[in-house]
């Protein structure tokens, strides 16, 4: 079944028009005709079934036939703040995989040792959108624009806050400290790790230091390991 | 510290010669000189410290100064048999990430619904080698050549055998059935999943069906999720 992302749809609508790009894809590429069935997700938890009413190649009109809100709603909230990798493809890979496995919010943080200071948020968001379509997720993870570490670490967060780093010091395992069904925020540093100053600042701001096992992991693998652990512990 | 992969070294050696390629890298690229320290892994659990004795650009001679066998030996054995993805880059990503997280053996299996029927094992092995160097692992995961599913599923394996599939039927969670510190083998199907015939054949051959959660995962994500779970449950 074909699935489309229609972020502007509301639960009360009986009809919906696909965007120009999606219309073109539906009619020109997939060659859909009147009466063909398809599915829609709105990124806010809505999952819809629909049929093509007018197969216009720029403004395809759909009739909604069924809907479900809070579709596969997650039982916890996970926010990962990650330093974008030098090779941005590695961050893209993380975003795709984390979306498949389960994540709610991602912030890119620019750290002292970050080699990359910026990222194309629009492009990264497209990767997330593509991943939610692939894995049929009705919720679209939120990707925030890049923030400096020092600015981000002072931001208020109502939930458990963790920092994964490779320096010495007391560290916890998520399985021992994570409160299931809650909200958690995990910081993942750049290639070369967080600086000791950054770690101190996080600890002073109520972050707990965690370990992700004994293996030396790349930035994007560490972030995915954290995502995996939180989802697994909430299963 | 620079790390080199020297699969031919044996514990009794006091000296070791780098391959032509590694010599070139050490002397021409890294500009190492006599007396410079470096580290070696042999892929069989040996971790060595050494210094450059003769910085020859084709046959660099090293003196071994310290060694450790069974370096970070894993406490369990994990074999994943995965259908290579249509886009081979996705399989490459899996191999890199699984090596970082922890895996012992990988077999590529060609299934009824596999779109890809072959893969360049040499190239894939290079990716694994690069990943063990990156994550300082002294054991090199073994990558077997591609086998037909029907042939592979009849192969003897002394340990627990699992098949992860998306069809209906009784399925277990690894956390409930995996015996820690043991040997396990997990089958991961192609895009489009295993066929019902393949699933039946696996079940008849002593494989247990498992679920990797409620998310719809791509082939390489499912394989990585399995790898994460087994390592996490053995931590």
How would the blueprint of this fold be written?
The structure is a homodimer.
Chain A: E1 3-5, E2 15-17, H1 20-29, E3 37-41, E4 47-54, E5 61-68, E6 77-82, H2 88-101, E7 105-110, H3 121-134, E8 142-148, H4 149-152, E9 160-164, E10 172-173, H5 174-177, E11 183-188, H6 196-204, E12 208-211, H7 219-233
Parallel strand pairs in A: 1-3, 6-7, 6-11, 7-8, 9-11, 9-12, 10-12
Antiparallel strand pairs in A: 2-5, 3-4, 4-5
EC number (chains A, B): 2.1.1.193
GO molecular function, one term (chains A, B): rRNA (uridine-N3-)-methyltransferase activity
Catalytic activity (chains A, B): uridine(1498) in 16S rRNA + S-adenosyl-L-methionine = N(3)-methyluridine(1498) in 16S rRNA + S-adenosyl-L-homocysteine + H(+)
Walk me through the structure:
2 copies of one chain form a homodimer. In chain A, strand 3 and strand 4 form a beta hairpin. In chain A, helix 2 packs parallel to helix 3 and helix 2 runs parallel beside helix 7. The model of chain A has no long low-confidence stretch (mean pLDDT 96). The first copy, chain A, has 2 domains: 66 residues, Beta Barrel (Ribosomal Protein L25, Chain P); 157 residues, Alpha/beta knot. In chain A, 40% of the residues are buried. The radius of gyration of chain A is 20 Å and the shape is elongated. Chain A has 235 residues and is α/β, with parallel strands linked by helices. A 7-stranded parallel β-sheet of chain A has the order 8-7-6-11-9-12-10, sandwiched between helices. Chains A and B meet through helix 2 and helix 7 of A and helix 2 and helix 7 of B. Chains A, B: One of its GO terms (cellular component) is cytoplasm. Chains A, B: It comes from Mucilaginibacter ginkgonis.
């Amino acid at each position: 079944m074909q699935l489309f992302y229609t972020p502007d749809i509301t639960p009360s609508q009986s009809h919906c028009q696909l965007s120009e790009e999606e219309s073109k894809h539906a009619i020109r590429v997939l060659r859909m005709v009147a009466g063909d069935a398809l599915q829609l997700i709105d990124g806010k938890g809505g999952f819809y079934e629909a049929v093509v009413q007018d197969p216009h190649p720029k403004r395809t009109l759909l009739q909604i036939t069924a809907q479900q809100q809070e579709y596969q709603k997650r039982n916890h909230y996970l926010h990962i703040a990650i330093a974008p990798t030098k090779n941005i493809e590695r961050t893209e890979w993380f975003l795709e995989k984390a979306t498949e496995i389960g994540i709610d919010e991602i912030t890119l943080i620019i750290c002292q040792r970050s080699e990359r200071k910026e990222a194309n948020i629009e492009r990264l968001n497209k990767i997330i959108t593509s991943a939610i379509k692939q894995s049929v997720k009705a919720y679209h993870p939120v990707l925030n624009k890049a923030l400096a570490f020092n600015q981000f670490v002072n931001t208020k967060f109502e939930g458990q806050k963790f920092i994964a780093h490779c320096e010495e010091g007391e560290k916890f395992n998520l399985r021992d400290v994570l409160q299931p069904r809650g909200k958690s925020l995990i910081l993942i540093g750049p290639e070369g790790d967080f600086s000791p100053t950054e770690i101190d600042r996080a600890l002073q701001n109520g972050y707990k230091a965690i370990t992700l096992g004994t293996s030396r992991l790349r930035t994007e693998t560490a972030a995915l390991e954290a995502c995996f652990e939180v989802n697994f512990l909430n299963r």
